[in-house]
Design brief:
Layout (H helix, E strand, L loop, with lengths): L1 H22 L4 E3 L3 E4 L4 E9 L2 E5 L5 E4 L2 E3 L2 E7 L8 E9 L5 E8 L4 E5 L3 E4 L9 E8 L3 E4 L7 E3 L13 E9 L8 E9 L5 E4 L1 E6 L10 H15 L17 E3 L15 E9 L17 E7 L21 E5 L18 E3 L22 E3 L30 H5 L4 E3 L6 E2 L15 H6 L6 H4 L11 E3 L4 E4 L3 H4 L9 H4 L14 E2 L7 H6 L13
Parallel strand pairs: 2-9, 10-17, 11-18, 20-21, 21-22, 22-23, 23-24, 24-25, 25-27, 26-28, 28-29
Antiparallel strand pairs: 1-3, 3-7, 4-6, 4-8, 5-7, 8-9, 10-12, 12-15, 13-16, 14-15, 16-18, 19-20
Length: 545
Amino acid sequence: MKMKKYLILGFLSLAVVACSDSNEQGGVALDANTIEIDAVGGVEKIKINATDRWIASTDNPWITVSPANGVGSAECEFKIDSALTAEPRSGLVRIQNLSTWEYQEIRVNQQGFPYTIELEDVSQDIESYKMADERYFDVEIRANVDFNVEIPSDIDWLKYDDYKLNLNRGLRPRHVTVRFHWDINTKSVERLAEVKFTPKQNVEMSRSDVLSVAQQGAEPIIPDTRSGDSTALLAIARNLNVMSAWDASQPMTMWNNVVLWDESMEGCTPEKVGRVKYAEFMLFNTNEPLPFEVRYLTAADELYFFGNANTFLKNLELGEDICELEQLRRLTIGSYGLVSLPENLKRLKNLEYLNICANNFQTVPDVLTKKNFPALRSLVMNANQRSVVYDLSNTTKVNVGGFIDEPQFPVDLLKWDLDTLVLSVNYLQGELPTFEDDDSVPVYTQEDIELADSLPQFLVDNRIKKVMPSTKRFAINFNRLSGTLPDWLLYHPSLDWWIPYSLVFSQEGRAQDGKQAGFDNEPTSLNYYYDVYTKKERIDYTVNE
């Protein structure tokens, strides 16, 4: 009986050993042999049952086991790094008994990242207007493939800055910010744009978001109305960032520097009464062309813009909207930062006075011709110097304004025969033309003498060229002109009224070729002049004045 009991206990022991061998192969037992994880990685836990010392090892650097060794049972954390590619990957972790060197393996399967371009926000609503340095928005993009930003070709009001998506450590999605810039919406209707982001390489995309941009319409301005004029004036002042703007709560009749048409004014018509005749904008700060709202001032006779901040640093265009005001007679755009004028400015056929002083022109704008402006009588283009340079031959500056790129004195301006031509304080170089060999410039005739008894016979006898005969104000002082004063200027009928020693003869500095500015035949006085013009009252102009 006792022997039978021992036999039963022996069989039970063998059964326990057999059972232990089936669950603890190699002296180690695991509650899972496979880990499935997505591309972003993470942490998975597996319980290890062992009676001896053990160690975990792997040849895959993207898998980390903690703890990596131990004695007896433990719960291990398997840390899986983020995937680096679009393809799946697989790795093995070996759990080994250090006494028997027997082991079990755990296979880790990780999905790859699909190619995606994801936007944090797929829609963007923007206003019709903001100040220039505020007209942008940023788009946060998560992508694992470099991409192109595609704005429809017919959308010219939306642009973007360069960006860089750094994928040098694999294809896990990275975040990049793309900055978009937008222009003012000049129309009262909303405008839309869809921006696509397309991969630069030929890959199959899992997701590629599209950005929808919606911009509000501009505040409606009723054309050809008094209310439209007031709205336009306020908008122009706002867009220019005028230092002292008008109070919208007051009627236009109380606004400073604004003149409204009145029935008693010359040129007034019934439809003009109460509308803006003259408006002045001074001391502002803009980096853009004239605001588009200027086109609504369709009754204006004169507009005046002067005093942009840091003008000498700017390279601005005038814009096309001012070209709509074909009724304008007088226009001043001074100290704005202009470097060119639009060709369409020639639409202002009624323009009589144009002042574009203190800008940054390198050359005389091509549009300024007698043909383009048949009614123009006064042209003022003085003080176009960005900075004062006395010796042009000794400077490396090339962007200094002052018509410095003019190869010679702008002859066509002298042939225009304006009432007023002011070109003072620029960088005009070379010599004044004599017109001796220019048959397009006539000489004074006997008929001219008979029509104006103040003209001397000297002009006819010496075949003096009839240059700018109508010009009552001519100023070219403080340029870099040199050479000989031509006879047409020395004996011009209006020379004494031009205040020549101050506004004509005076030059300064050196030209780009190193030549000292100044005329080599500058008269010491005007005695010679009054000896010819005997009917004129002498004015005491001297070199020292």
